[in-house]
Amino acid sequence: MSMDAVLKEVDSRRDDVVKLVQELIRFKTVNPPGDTSDCAGFIKDYLSERGLKVELYESEKGKVSAVGILKGSGDRRFIWDGHIDVVPIAKPDAWTVDPWEGKIVESRIVGRGAADMKGNVGAAMVAASILSEKDINLRGDLVLAFVPDEETGGYLGTGYLVDKGVLDGDACIVGEFSPFNTLCVGEKGILWLKVKASGIPAHASVKFLGVNAIDMLYKFFEDLYHVEEVDRKLTAEFNKIIDAIQPALKQLESIGFPRELLNNMYRRLSVNVGIVKGGEKVNIVPANAEAEVDIRILPGMDYDQVKKEIDQIRKDYNNKLWEKYPNLKALGIEGITVEETLRFDPSYQKLDAPLILLMKKEIQKITNKEPLLFVHTGGTDARFFRAKGIPTVCYGAGSETPHGANEYVPIDNLIEATKVYALAAMDFLGTA
Ligand SMILES: [Zn+2]
Asked: Has this prediction a pTM greater than 0.85?
């Protein structure tokens, strides 16, 4: 069957794609706790019935992956990877439809996970089913992985399968949403810190007897935010990527993102204080407070260097505290402590990888437009593959609604993704 015939076949299965995505959305794979066993079991049945060989892997109770293989005749392996866990519904009232129904509204499927990323999971399942049922005879294996835990780090899903050698191959598409039909060739790294402040309790009416840990915390953040103001040295290779994503940044600029903000996004750290807790009662000077901080890091920025800078800020700050509050010093209370709780490396795909040319060509064929390159600001499971040296890009349908209310995927976009996944596998592996 020719590529053109495959494209026609995808068009004829438009309703199948929609129904499948709706079914996937109805599995409440909310993470946490992120139990994917039922959903993975459903995927196993669906793909087995259509001729794929499917195994389930359980890394921890309830963290179940389904890995399907469409056997080909040669040694090459092409991987498609997507997660089946979804984030919780933060504000149910903000939804105008049932988030677990997969309702169709104005040619869009609306529901939790529609954009991130059960839409693309359904697209990949239908693409692989067509290649299997129409006896395409790939000259290598197509491997599809449907994984848990992406929304909480990925170590129990893609990370686990890559470590075990289950997911090994010559190239990989991670089917995350790529904004404006771009092809995503990199992503930022993440550093999470827990910042604790220790003070001295006292009655609010004689607050000079105590040291307020909440005050301490927010004053420390004034100092910490200075790490955002520095332009940082990136790797030469990543600088080339920054050049290559300029057309996409121009597009963002044209819809209202200030240029300076876009530039800073790709040459500076970002610091977000996401959670603050502290205090016991309104009339007590709080002795303890803590916060969680999310820092985004670009390729070429050295984590240890960043941590060293933060540690210096902390030491300078604590010294100032001890000068101001001799009783803290007398009690040996350090003031601010900082602890690392999570670290993801940034990652990127070198631009000369044949996979990038191939994907550009196939996306252009389907959308009639050469895709722009982009770097995800968030983290994806792509980093696990890149760490193993497997060329990896992200491409998928979606919308700017992941994790939000009324999350949706446009059906036309979903059909495009189905076509791109099918053609990319045929092109990369070749057909007999
Ligand atoms: Zn996702």
From this structure: yes
